Amino acid sequence: MVDVPMLVGANAEIAPGVYRMQLYTDGVALTEELRPGQFVNLKIDGFYLRRPISICDWSHGVLTLVYKAVGEGTRHLSAMEEGAALRVLLPLGNGYTLLPDKQPVLVGGGVGIPPLYYLCKELIRAGQKPTAILGFNTASEVFLQSAFAALCDTILTTVDGSAGVKGFVTDALPKLNPDTSTVYTCGPEAMLRAVFRSVEFSSVQFSFEERMGCGFGACMCCSCKTVTGYKRICKDGPVLRREEILW
Ligand SMILES: Cc1cc2nc3c(=O)[nH]c(=O)nc-3n(C[C@H](O)[C@H](O)[C@H](O)COP(=O)(O)OP(=O)(O)OC[C@H]3O[C@@H](n4cnc5c(N)ncnc54)[C@H](O)[C@@H]3O)c2cc1C
Ligand code: FES
Question: Which of 92, 118, 98 is nearest to 183 (CA)?
Answer without folding.
Answer: 98
